[in-house]
Specification:
Protein name: Helix-turn-helix transcriptional regulator
Largest sheet: none
Keywords: DNA-binding
InterPro entries: Cro/C1-type_HTH (IPR001387), Lambda_DNA-bd_dom_sf (IPR010982), TransReg_Diox_bact_type (IPR050807)
Order of helices and strands: HHHHH
Helix content: 40-55%
Oligomer: single chain
CATH class: Mainly Alpha
Pfam family, one: HTH_3
Length: about 80
């Protein structure tokens, strides 16, 4: 997963959305989600904190594991929110 030097507003919001979707699944910890996806726990942690941007494939796999539409994670974003300045 590409790791930005500082989180953009979009990365932070994406992480918040993933976090909220995971918390909506009773008892699903970062560790359990990471195990389910066969990725490192730190990968989920970094995504949720906006420190890492998941690949398209990883985002789809996360959505599938959380029984949600991957579009829910990116809906409403604009290029302006990708600006880190």
């Amino acid at each position: 997963m590409p790791r930005p030097s500082s989180p953009s507003p979009a990365s932070t919001e994406l992480g918040r959305r993933v976090h909220e979707a995971r918390k909506a699944v009773k008892g699903l910890t970062q560790e359990k989600l990471a195990h389910k996806l066969d990725i490192a726990h730190s990968g989920i942690s970094d995504i949720e904190r906006g420190l890492a941007n998941p690949t398209f494939e990883t985002l789809v796999r996360i959505a599938d594991a959380l029984n949600t539409d991957p579009g829910d994670f990116i809906r409403g974003f604009t290029a302006k929110e990708l600006d880190r300045s």
